[in-house]
Amino acid sequence: AEAPIAMPTEALPDDAPADARPLELVNYGFGVGELGAGWGLVARNPNTDYAVADSRYTLTVFDTAGNAIHSEEGSLMVLLPGQTTGAAGALLVGDEEAIAAIEVVLQTGRFVAASAGPDITAQNVMFMESTFVDGVGGMLVNPYKVDWAGLRVWAVAFDEAGNVIGGGTTILDLLPSMGSAVVAVPVEVSAKPARVELFAGPEELPE
Fold it and tell me: What pLDDT digit, counting tens, does each position of 62-71 carry?
């Protein structure tokens, strides 16, 4: 399903540096599958000199009459300068067929002076169709000398036009220091995606 045209973002925190810019909400959307509904967003840090930590999103679900039928909040990973991330999950509403639209609002967190650094990257990302629960699989590569335990991983699915058509999330038990790990994320999508992406990262800045 297509996202609404408006992509609102809240004002910067009061203590933000004068040259800081809010996070950009690049894309978001949802999809209703056979077993439920999934959603996803893509956000970017446009700053060149600041990482952004403690950012949050608010997700609101609307029915065909424009009534809000569900809302939730969540956290984004730390975004280094110029970095893009995603967030995704299941839409836990009583009747998925009643979902007509969603709206996402970003709350930009605190700014930390930083330079661009390496990201946790995903390789060999693929959509895995199943008769039960579809998934997105891939291998995460850790460029840091830190073991990441309980790492949140998000999968976002897109159609040919680049619209978000679903997503999902899971927790990876361990991504070892300077190593890699295979991950599979259950997703709900409205159709077979043309493209899928995996996003993962810590909620605190790496040392």
Answer: 999 999 999 9
